[in-house]
């Protein structure tokens, strides 16, 4: 019977692959986490993830220490994500401002954790993991300049990434577990000429160590994963469409979880995201990020679990104040005027939010079924730079972003 359950869940996960939707930026262009449990706790989960989706995403070694053990768990969720993006460009011809078309993006997640033996577990997750973009078409920002990209302000940009991650975890003893996830990574980039996609592979090892029954320590690493988006735009206006390589950066993460009793769980994570060494992001002046998050879980009721969290990461977008818009900038062997370079990266990809608060709850309908809910708000952040446009006239560029999301999920023990 358990085998049939497994096949049903695997079929649902494969069905998820046909609906890759764009996610949007939170920590850089990465979501703070996937699944409602971790998202309700500020994105924590490296030391003690509380469901199968969080385990495969945050630290595959943790599958052996999940609260669902020794059972199997399948989970599925949908996040409704709504970013609000605004921009203003002032140059020698005037001042132009607009709000990007407001959309609510559905982001699906599904995951499975299944015991192969007393000490070995298999996991599988499919999830939207990162993305960003704007749509300023048919606004004031869409008619400032004449000519095709890059002689524009980045009026339409969509980057989306999705991963399918099979994973294994091995429990060495009662205090130690190791794990490895393989990332099958799909990405699509559209700069107004249609989506250009690609696939690559990465890996994520992890380790969990429990020095006491109340404390859990976790470490994990995600390898860099590069995809070449061919024929995505004519960067140097020579009439030939150019490719753009974008590399999902390497990430180091560490976590600490403290469970003083059966009622409370406190977790905190820290991650280092190496944007400055990632192909594509380093070309557009992104800085490394340190991500700090903390979350709490309260089990003081018979069938309801409450959660809250906070997540902070400084904006990775470097600001080149007093830029000379008449200069030429080389991006992956292609030259583009600095003014268009600045408007493209600040208006087209404003991954700038820093502070996030999260809330959530779980309702245990029965011993095997539960409903999970999470809400996230990323507070508005604004950036602005001054310089000159391509004629040498005084120019300024401003962008702002805030975000809201609501996640609903179901979990099934079998």
TrEMBL record:
InterPro entries, per the entry: OMPP1/FadL/TodX
Domain of life according to the entry: Bacteria
Keyword Hydrolase: no
GO CC annotation: cell outer membrane
One protein family per Pfam: Toluene_X
Residues annotated as transmembrane: none
Gene3D superfamilies from the UniProt entry: Outer membrane protein transport protein (OMPP1/FadL/TodX)
Keywords: Cell outer membrane, Membrane, Signal, Transmembrane, Transmembrane beta strand
GO MF annotations, alphabetized: long-chain fatty acid transporting porin activity
PANTHER family noted in UniProt: OUTER MEMBRANE PROTEIN NMB0088-RELATED (PTHR35093)
Name of this protein: Long-chain fatty acid transport protein
Organism annotation: Desulfovibrio ferrophilus
């Amino acid at each position: 019977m358990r085998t049939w359950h497994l096949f049903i869940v695997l079929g649902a996960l494969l069905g998820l692959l046909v609906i890759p939707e764009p996610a949007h930026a939170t920590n850089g262009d990465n979501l703070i986490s996937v699944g409602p449990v971790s998202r309700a706790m500020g994105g924590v989960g490296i030391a003690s993830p509380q469901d199968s989706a969080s385990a495969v995403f945050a630290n595959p070694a943790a599958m052996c220490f999940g609260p669902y053990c020794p059972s199997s768990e399948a989970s599925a969720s949908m996040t409704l994500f709504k970013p609000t993006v605004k921009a203003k460009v002032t140059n020698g011809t005037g001042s132009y401002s607009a709000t990007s078309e407001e959309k609510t993006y559905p982001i699906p997640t599904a995951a499975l954790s299944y015991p192969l033996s007393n000490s070995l577990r298999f996991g599988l997750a499919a999830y939207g993991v990162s993305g960003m973009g704007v749509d300023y078409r048919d606004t004031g920002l869409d008619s400032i300049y004449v000519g095709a990209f890059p002689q524009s302000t980045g009026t339409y940009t969509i980057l989306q990434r999705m991963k399918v991650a099979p994973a294994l975890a091995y429990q060495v003893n009662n205090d130690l577990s190791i794990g490895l996830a393989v990332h099958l990574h799909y990405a699509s980039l559209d700069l107004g000429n249609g989506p250009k996609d690609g696939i690559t592979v990465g890996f994520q090892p992890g380790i969990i160590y429990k020095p006491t029954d109340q404390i859990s320590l976790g470490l994990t690493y995600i390898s860099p994963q590069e995809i070449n988006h061919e024929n995505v735009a004519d960067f140097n206006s020579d009439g030939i469409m150019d490719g753009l390589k974008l590399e999902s950066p390497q990430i180091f993460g560490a976590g600490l979880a403290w469970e003083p009793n059966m009622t409370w769980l406190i977790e905190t994570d820290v991650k280092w995201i190496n944007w400055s060494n990632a192909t594509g992001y380093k070309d557009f002046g992104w800085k490394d990020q340190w991500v700090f998050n903390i979350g709490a879980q309260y089990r003081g009721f018979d069938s309801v679990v409450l959660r809250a969290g906070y997540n902070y990461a400084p904006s990775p977008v470097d600001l080149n104040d007093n830029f000379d818009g008449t200069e030429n900038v080389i991006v992956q062997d292609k030259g583009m005027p600095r003014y268009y370079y600045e408007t493209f990266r600040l208006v087209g990809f404003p991954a700038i939010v820093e502070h996030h608060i999260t809330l959530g709850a779980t309702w245990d309908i029965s011993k095997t079924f539960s409903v999970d809910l999470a809400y996230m708000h990323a507070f508005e952040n604004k950036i602005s730079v001054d310089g000159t446009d391509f004629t040498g006239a005084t120019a300024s560029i401003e962008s702002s972003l805030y975000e809201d999301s609501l996640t609903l999920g179901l979990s099934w023990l079998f």
